[in-house]
Amino acid sequence: MTTTMRDVAKAAGVSVATVSHVVNDKPGARIGDDARRRVQEAIVALGYRPNALAKTLSEGSSRFIGLVADAIATTPFAGQIIHGAQDEAWRHGFVLLVANTEGNAAAENDAIAMMLEHQVRGILYSTWYHREIEVPPPLQHTETVLVNCFAGDDSFAAVVPDEEQGGRTATEQLLAAGHRRIAFVNTTSPSPARSGRLAGYRSALEAAGIAGDDALVFEAAPQQEGGYDAAAAVIASGATAVFCHNDRVAMGLYDGLRERGLRIPDDVAVIGFDNQDVIAAHLRPPLSTVALPHYELGAAGVRTLLGLESPATGARQLIACPSVPRESV
Amino acid sequence: MTTTMRDVAKAAGVSVATVSHVVNDKPGARIGDDARRRVQEAIVALGYRPNALAKTLSEGSSRFIGLVADAIATTPFAGQIIHGAQDEAWRHGFVLLVANTEGNAAAENDAIAMMLEHQVRGILYSTWYHREIEVPPPLQHTETVLVNCFAGDDSFAAVVPDEEQGGRTATEQLLAAGHRRIAFVNTTSPSPARSGRLAGYRSALEAAGIAGDDALVFEAAPQQEGGYDAAAAVIASGATAVFCHNDRVAMGLYDGLRERGLRIPDDVAVIGFDNQDVIAAHLRPPLSTVALPHYELGAAGVRTLLGLESPATGARQLIACPSVPRESV
DNA sequence: TTGAAAGCGCTAACAT
DNA sequence: ATGTTAGCGCTTTCAA
Questions:
Q1: Domain HTH lacI-type, which positions (chains A, B) (predicted)?
Q2: What is chain A's Cα-based Rg?
Q3: Radius of gyration of chain B (CA)
Q4: Which class does domain A5-59 fall in?
Q5: Mind telling me how many Å the CA of B88 is from chain A's nearest CA?
Q6: Does A64-162+295-321 match A5-59 at the fold level?
Q7: Which residue stretches of chain B are H helix?
Q8: In chain B, % of residues over pLDDT 90
Q9: Which pLDDT belongs to residue A3?
């Protein structure tokens, strides 16, 4: 049924070795023009397709890269991690094996086992939000790169977003627009995002010669509801601009501000974080924000897995969070 | 380096055939308790892992299923298609090969070629929104199932959402809440969603003995902006409830309604479509909507590809869009 | 310039 | 009950 190399060889009147050589365009292989042509013709005539599996078996090394995700296909924007990883893998002739585990340890082990059985070159282990993780035991003895997460002792190569730079960038946008009294509505849940963005906020203020004022730092649940509820306090603080921990908080804040008759950005400037498209691009006014570099995280993960990127040893590789200006600042 | 079956056989003092039998728990294979035990011990002692690729090669049939998506990893909720497909594939011992093509024909052909070279059992071809497509030529001679899309002549097995039932369901929610004058803000872009939901809306009204009134059917760009802009006309129509083509339109409508001092659902009830979580669950009030069954589309696609589901021949398989009641009705 | 043949790790008759 | 062996489709020395 499927036509193999042997079929091509027979049709072209040559040996399989010759076919193999022309198919792979082997450098050190002298093939007569005539033979080469006959092989090529036979290939198209028979519709021959190399069997990648047999090739792998024979060569000993596969072209697979595994991506195990805790909920990446479930959550809105983090699917970009898959996308970035897949593009980059592709670019280097690799194929992505994807497994979604929903954070279920059993599923996770199964997924990893399955990938190992498929001889993956290595595994990308990724989470849908940036956090510290316990690396699953089966990964200990496998070429692994953590994406959007990291081991507590940094014993694994990891690629994560630069939260602090992101927080700084956000704050700088507000500063650049002339604001001096800038509030920060942070999340209540401890996380690299929470501390990193706060650090960035502070460092930007400091760099601008503005004394940090803890009365301007608020905490709220990281959804629309949190932002909405924070509105009153933010207004009371006298802030003229507010940096929200994420776009959803910003969206809630919009509601709260609007309800009190405040206009954005005229009365209060707002900047978000995450660049969650469905929201940010379509709020009124469109929300200025800072993007989480999901695509880049996936791509960089693949690169370091393939050894194309040499991260400072043992250190997390930080990926910049770019500013996405729209109309709320 | 990697330990093979032969290593295990040697360690256990048996032949590879025996090892193969115990590893695969072959039904018709009588293996002595003693030998079986020795093999199992050797397996853990050596940390043996079967090579799935060699197995495939030998068996002749692979356990791969390909999923080529036009933008599925890019777009928020449709990542659920991947998720559903992967879960279902997994459930049957299959592995998903994912490729995102961004609608680029060249990338698409490459992706398909690569999958074929990896001996996939078949290919799921999916789009991020429900529509008619031109099936890529290389798929013509391949076991293919279309997911969230369909061929113009229905010459391919396809699994799509039941837009009409969805539209009916949405309208019924409004009807059940006692509304009689129900507006429909449809999208301007021609699509199965546009015509299907409209048909569902009409059929629900008719079933309730309400005469359809074209003055109650509006058209708007399918984003927040469209909903916002439609608010005035909707209000002027005297409708007490409105079914929005999607959640984003509903979100915009919320703004428009609120700006005019109307309260939801007291003054006007609103229902959306898509169940786009970031939005629907967190609007104020939370938006009642109808869900697009992405996960199920992916899962059903895999099932029909594996021949576990027998679709009425040549027909599209319709997946129901369930109602997701929240507080806007 | 080309071919023969020995694997790659595993399965599946077929023997024993 | 267990072992032998011939492939699966391809790569790769090594000869010719």
A1: 3-59
A2: 26
A3: 26
A4: mainly alpha
A5: 11
A6: no
A7: 5-12, 16-24, 33-46, 52-59, 79-91, 105-117, 163-176, 192-207, 224-236, 247-259, 277-280, 294-305
A8: 85
A9: 93
Peptide bond into B286 cis (omega under 30): no
Domain A64-162+295-321 - what CATH class? alpha beta
Task: Give mean pLDDT, residues B285-311.
Answer: 94
d(CA A228, CA A258): 10
pLDDT along chain A (329 residues), means of 10: 92 94 84 91 95 93 93 77 93 92 90 94 96 94 95 95 98 98 98 98 98 96 97 97 98 96 97 94 96 97 92 81 98
Across-strand partners of B315? none
Q: Is the pTM of this model over 0.70?
A: yes
Question: For position B314, what pLDDT does the model report?
Answer: 66
> Whose CB is within 7 A of strand C?
A 13-18, 29-32, 34-36, 54, 57-58, 60; B 2, 4-6, 16-17, 20, 23-24, 26, 49-51, 54-55, 57-59
Tell me which architecture the domain covering A163-291 has in CATH.
Answer: 3-Layer(aba) Sandwich (3.40)
Contact B62 A53 (CB under 8 A): yes
Strand D contacted by A32 CB (< 7 A): no
Q: Do B79 and A83 touch (CB under 8 A)?
A: no
Where does A33-189 show beta strands of DSSP type E?
64-69, 95-100, 123-133, 144-151, 157-161, 182-187
What number of other Cβ atoms are within 10 A of residue B88's Cβ?
23
Q: What is the pLDDT of residue A311?
A: 65
The dihedrals phi and psi of A314, each to the nearest 5 degrees, come to: 65, 0
